[in-house]
Amino acid sequence: MIEEHVGEFVSLVFMAFALGMDAFSVSLGMGMQLIRLKRIAYIGIVIGVFHMIMPFIGIMLGKAISGQIGDVTVFIGSLLLIVIGTQMFFSAFNHEAKKIIQPTGIGLILFAISVSLDSFSVGLSLGMSGVKTFIALLLFGGASMVLTWAGMILGKKVHGFLGVYSEMLGGAILCVFGLLLLFN
C-alpha cells in the first residue's frame, strides 16, 4: 500500500518536471531580455498558477469522462501522454525562429497559457486514471514555477543551448510514463 503511494508520488514528481520543461525552455529565451529579478519572480508565480489551473480542469473533466466510459480511460489516458510527449519531443527539432512574447499584461497571460496547455491534456489523462488531485496540482505548479525561474535566470547566461534538449527530455519523460501507464 505504501509502495503504491510512493510510486505514484515519484511518478508525479517526474511528470511535473517533464511538464515544467516546456516553461523552462521558453523561459531561457525570455531570460535573455533585460528583466529584473522581481519581474522574474512574478512571471514564475503566474506560470505556476496556470500549471495548476489547466491540469485541474483536465483532471475534473477526466474524472467525469472515466465514470462514463470505464476501463477504456486508462488506455486513452496513456495514449494521450504518449502523443503529448512525442509532440513535445519532435517540436524541439522545429528550428523556425519563435517570436518572443513580452512578459507583461496580456503577453504574460498568453505566455502562461501557451506553456501550460500540455498540462491540461496531462490532467485529462490523470483524471481518467484517478490520481491524487491536490498533490498533482501542487507538484505541477511548484515544478513549473521553479523551472521558469531557473530558465529565466539561466537565460541571462546561456544563449539557447539547453532549450532544445530540455524539450526533448520533457517529451521523453511523458512518453515513458504513458507507456508505463499503458502496460501496468
From TrEMBL:
Membrane topology of this protein = Multi-pass membrane protein
Name where it mostly resides: membrane
- KW Lipid metabolism (keyword) present: no
UniProt superkingdom: Bacteria
Which subcellular locations apply to this protein? Cell membrane
Q: Which Pfam families match?
A: Mntp
Coiled coil: which residue ranges? none
Which keywords does the record carry?
A: Cell membrane, Ion transport, Manganese, Membrane, Transmembrane, Transmembrane helix, Transport
InterPro entries membership: Mntp/YtaF, Put_MntP
Which is a Gene Ontology cellular component entry for this protein? plasma membrane
A Gene Ontology molecular function term of the record: manganese ion transmembrane transporter activity
Bilayer-spanning residue ranges: 6-28, 40-61, 73-93, 105-128, 134-155, 162-183
Family statement drawn from the similarity comment of this UniProt entry = Belongs to the MntP (TC 9.B.29) family.
Q: What does this protein do?
A: Probably functions as a manganese efflux pump.
Q: What is this protein called?
A: Putative manganese efflux pump MntP
Q: Can you name the source organism?
A: Virgibacillus necropolis
